[in-house]
Specification:
31% of the residues lie in helices and 26% in strands. With 156 residues, the chain is α+β, with helices and mostly antiparallel strands. The chain has a single domain, classed as Beta-Lactamase, CATH 3.30.450.40. A six-stranded antiparallel sheet has the order 3-2-1-6-5-4, with helices on both faces. A hairpin with a 2-residue loop joins strand 1 (47-54) and strand 2 (57-65). Helix 1 packs antiparallel against helix 2 and helix 1 (13-21) runs parallel beside helix 4 (137-152).
Length: 156
């Protein structure tokens, strides 16, 4: 599948997210609804969810998809790299990413956005696809907006 065959994100995704997250400021509930919305609204995904930084380790949070790695050290894999660098990691081919952690062998591309709270990394949003080069620059911008909305509407 080529990049031109990928359906863009739905235009009403951000308003839907704001409405979902307006009900409570509980971060677990908001992570669960954010992951579910992304997983079901976005095409060509096989995993969407969060890891929360606890005691210098990323711990699996609410997600949609197959069972995942439970603990990830900062600096390890795509998630750990996003947490350590505090920068979004958009990886067109995870198999070419040094130190990639293969939680699901069907994943071929990945994007991870750090969740910041008061200037510190609180966790990461991780989205995987079985399609190589699935995530565009526009996707990165949209997912960074998703994380910003999540952080603003949750008690982190």
């Amino acid at each position: 599948m080529t990049l031109s065959n990928i359906t863009p994100f739905p235009s009403d995704l951000l308003p839907q997210l704001r409405a979902l997250l307006s009900v409570t400021r509980d971060p677990v509930a908001n992570m669960a609804n954010t992951a579910a919305l992304l997983y079901h609204a976005l095409p060509q995904l096989n995993w969407a969810g969060f890891y929360v930084l606890k005691n210098d380790t990323l711990v699996l949070g609410p997600f949609q998809g197959k069972p995942a790695c439970v603990l990830i050290a900062p600096g390890k894999g795509v998630c750990g790299t996003a947490a350590a660098t505090r920068q979004t990691q958009r990886v067109p081919d995870v198999h070419a990413f040094a130190g990639h952690i293969a939680c699901d062998s069907a994943s071929n591309s990945e994007i991870v956005v750090p969740v910041l709270h008061q200037g510190a990394v609180w966790g990461v949003l991780d989205v995987d696809s079985p399609v190589l080069n699935r995530f565009t620059e526009e996707d990165r911008q949209l997912l960074e907006q998703v994380v910003q909305i999540f952080a603003e509407q949750s008690d982190l």
